[in-house]
Amino acid sequence: MASFVWTLYLGFLFWASGAMGAAPKKPVDVPFGRNYVPTWAIDHIKYFNGESEIQLSLDKYTGTGFQSKGSYLFGHFSMQIKMVPADSAGTVTAFYLSSQYSEHDEIDFEFLGNRTGQPYILQTNVFTGGKGDREHRIYLWFDPTKAYHSYSVLWNLYQIVFFVDDVPIRVFKNSKDLGVKFPFDQPMKIYSSLWNADDWATRGGLEKTDWSKAPFVASYRGFHIDGCEASVNAKFCATQGKRWWDHRDFQDLNGLQYRRLSWVRQKYTIYNYCTDRVRYPTLPPECNRDRDI
Ligand SMILES: *[C@@H]1O[C@H](CO)[C@@H](O)[C@H](O)[C@H]1NC(C)=O
User: Fold this and answer.
1) Catalytic residue of the set 51, 106, 135, 229
2) Structural domain of residue 113, as residue ranges?
3) Mutate which of 114, 115, 143 to test ligand 1's pocket (most atoms within 8 Å of Cβ)?
């Protein structure tokens, strides 16, 4: 019986990694309050259906945001978001993981709004030991304001993968062997916020927020967190190695995932710091690894 269950489990892992990448192993539809608390401007958050869905709003006085209750070292974190519709130029909706102290680690999704009918940009970044400047920018292959889509991060000792639905849009491999820091010992909290960034966000700051269209509203659901809760004992998480995300299937992307990643790179990339020779005359070391992908 036990081995039958084990076979089923392995079969599931195999299927999940082949078909869907970092398929969540825990239910994704958990209510907001299970994992998150509001951080600021709490009157700008509205709750629906027993907190299974929330809306953040931005007006000319303030934006708002929320954060996870726990801190985590490794795991899988996802959120379903419907971006600010219509004229969202100047607004930024962010979903990110960040550690607390000065030499911080951070894994960012930032959605830059646009004028009605013009495409959003998804900017991602990775900070390790306080060093960022690793922006990627892409267009999405769908309109992110029309329906919920899932945005997720898989983080283990081997790699950080950014997913949009089931598609890996970016991989940051552990390149410690090349002298690049990798987040492994600082727990991170998960944050989300909606704010005004019309000094840089849309067409580099040329398009200003049209406050006559306020409030700007982004909707959220699926407050899924499946990580090693580290507030208690970070070392325990770092040395575990036994959680599902440590399994061999999640140490690298599979063939299908690499094909999808290269599809995104070829068709949707606007900017990749690894190809910016003006900014980086010497290629950052992790980019050499990146290039093989
Ligand atoms: C907004 O639309 C313009 C025009 O299509 C485009 O150049 C730009 O990349 C879009 N996105 C942002 C966030 O500026």
Assistant:
1) 106
2) 22-289
3) 114
**In this structure, is residue 14 part of a structural domain?**
no
Active site residue 106: yes
Task: Check which CATH number belongs to the domain holding 72 and give it.
Answer: 2.60.120.200
| 15 domain-assigned | no
Q: State yes or no: is 103 an active-site residue.
A: no
Q: Is residue 169 in a domain?
A: yes
Contact 91, 110 (CB under 8 A): no
Tokens 């910016």 identify what position? 276
Q: Please report, for residues 84, 104, 205, 230, 264, the alpha-carbon distance to residue 214 in angstroms, rounded to integers and kept in the order given.
A: 10, 34, 18, 39, 33
pTM: 0.91
Give the pLDDT score at 292: 53
Residues of the chain with pLDDT under 70: 1-24, 231-235, 238-240, 290-293
Query: Is 221 inside a domain boundary?
Result: yes
Pocket of ligand 1 from Cβ distances under 6 Å: 112, 114, 118-119, 121, 202-203
